[in-house]
Amino acid sequence: MTGQRVAFLGPHGTFCEQALHTLGPGVLDDALGDPEPELRPLPSTTAALDAVRAGDADAACVPVENSVEGGVPATMDGLVETPPLVIVREILLPVRFAVLVRPGTTGETVTSVASHPHGEAQTRRWIAEHLPGAEVRLTSSTAAAAAQVAAGEVDAAVCAPVAATHHGLEALASDVHDTGDAVTRFVLVRRPDGRPLPAPTGADRTSLAATTVNRPGALLAVLTEIAVRGVDLTRIESRPLRDRRGEYWFFLDGTGHVAEPAMGEALAALRRRCTDVRFLGSYPRAHLAGSGDDATRAADPGPGQTVKDYTEAGAWLAALRDGTGA
Fold it and tell me: Residues 97-152: pLDDT tens digits?
């Protein structure tokens, strides 16, 4: 498979593009069937995911989580829309910001500074200390902030250093941060299209989203299905359902692969117990450079919760494993 198109949060010069460039040709060929796909910048994570669903791109690279600010709402909301998408790779990128300005600009003359909300959150104290009189403006990406500086719309941008070469800017300050070890996690997603999932490697992560009835103990029951099978839950976050006030999507990451017994059984159990479950992918865990019978028994569902048939849950799990379900 060649001629693949990968959408990403643009414009050129974003951390998202930088994350894509860390994937070598071998990884891209394994994930997409093309070692050198065409990279297409789009103005938002929503646009990138929509492009994949519409067939205008074969995959998308989007930020999903930051170690300082947590999950990226637009990405989380986009992943549970239909038709489904699956994550096939993740990338962990240490985030190092620069404050870029037009040549000749000094700190004393900066009256406005722009950045993506996550960039602003990770440099908020630095801005308050070093640019105390500057108005802070939020943009769709850090590279968009750099473009606004180049266009004369703002005086400074907190962004990736590489944006300087794209926009003819210079660094007023480098290695800017409030927390020195901040890391952003990006994911590469595509349509299922009946293609096999990435094969288990022994060091994998599975992502899913689930909803359940709003009653005491409902979330505990979901977590118990995961815990009793020995699955290490590495992340949990919630996002409200837009059409049902007081109900939430719970986004869960756990170690393991859907093809393995523990994770597969946990997913099938959640399928039976939850109002809805979205399988978001099983894929190799990324690493930063340098760095009994009772246990499988389903708990009592409690009043008000419908348990789906074992056969239906098993068929759903089988479809996930062979790439035909989501």
Answer: 999 999 999 999 999 999 999 899 889 999 999 999 899 999 989 999 999 999 99
**Tokens read off for 61:** 């690279």
- Centre a 10 Å sphere on the Cβ of residue 322 and count the other Cβ atoms it contains: 12
3-state secondary structure 48-98: HHHHHHHCCCCEEEEEEEECCCEECHHHHHHHCCCCCCEEEEEEEEECCEE
* Closest to 165 in 3D by CA, of 7, 17, 9, 6: 17
Work out the widest C-alpha separation in the chain, in whole angstroms.
71
- Residue 298's pLDDT is 36
Burial 265-276 (b: 16+ CB within 10 A, else e): bbbbbbbbbbee
The Cα 62–Cα 51 span in angstroms is 12
Cα 13–chain centre separation: 19
**pLDDT over threshold 90, residue 92:** yes
Higher per-residue pLDDT: 236 or 178:
236
Torsion of the alpha carbons at 215, 217, 222 and 224, rounded to the nearest 10? -170
Inter-axis angle of helices 261-273 and 310-321, nearest 10 = 130
Question: Model confidence over 191-211: pLDDT tens digits?
Answer: 998 889 999 999 999 999 999
Instruction: State the average pLDDT over residues 50-72.
Output: 94
Coil, strand or helix: which one is 320?
helix
- On the 0-12 / 13-18 / 19+ scale of CB atoms within 10 A, 291 is exposed
Task: Give Cα 51 to chain centroid, integer Å.
Answer: 16
3 state SS for 239-266: EECCCCCCCEEEEEEEECCCCCHHHHHH
What separation in angstroms does the CA of 31 have from each of 10, 34, 109, 111, 284? 21, 8, 47, 45, 11
* Closest by CA position to 141, among listed 39, 17, 44, 62: 44
